[in-house]
């Protein structure tokens, strides 16, 4: 996990670590597109956080906004507002402390060839 740079904007509202609930996290991850987003952040992240465009998803902006909000509200990702864009990162330390091994499973997940969610 990359260190947090100084001078970041405050995160958008998210659940506190002690309020993270397994059923909420699993529900958010049950969508194949959201699972792909989290997996890509875990495996391919080269910066601290990423804009929606970095993911290369061919979806309407309103659809992506919905998916990224669902991940943030479940406590899986943290989002920060930079002017007109929001950037995301996985809450690795928080999720590992609450649900050890869960992110390892997400990282090891291999999408089925017939899965066209992304």
From TrEMBL:
<dbReference type="InterPro" id="IPR001845">
    <property type="entry name" value="HTH_ArsR_DNA-bd_dom"/>
</dbReference>
<dbReference type="GO" id="GO:0003700">
    <property type="term" value="F:DNA-binding transcription factor activity"/>
</dbReference>
<dbReference type="InterPro" id="IPR036390">
    <property type="entry name" value="WH_DNA-bd_sf"/>
</dbReference>
<protein>
    <submittedName>
        <fullName>ArsR family transcriptional regulator</fullName>
    </submittedName>
</protein>
<feature type="domain" description="HTH arsR-type">
    <location>
        <begin position="14"/>
        <end position="110"/>
    </location>
</feature>
<dbReference type="InterPro" id="IPR036388">
    <property type="entry name" value="WH-like_DNA-bd_sf"/>
</dbReference>
């Amino acid at each position: 996990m990359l260190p947090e740079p100084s001078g970041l904007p405050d995160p958008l509202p998210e659940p506190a670590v002690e309020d993270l609930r397994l059923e909420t996290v699993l529900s958010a991850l049950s969508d194949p597109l959201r699972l792909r987003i989290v997996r890509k952040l875990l495996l391919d992240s080269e910066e601290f956080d990423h804009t929606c465009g970095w993911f290369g998803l061919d979806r309407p902006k309103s659809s992506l906004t919905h998916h990224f909000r669902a991940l943030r509200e479940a406590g899986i990702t943290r989002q920060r507002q930079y002017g007109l864009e929001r950037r995301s990162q996985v809450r690795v330390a928080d999720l590992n402390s609450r649900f050890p091994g869960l992110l390892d499973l997400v990282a090891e997940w291999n999408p089925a060839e017939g899965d066209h969610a992304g």
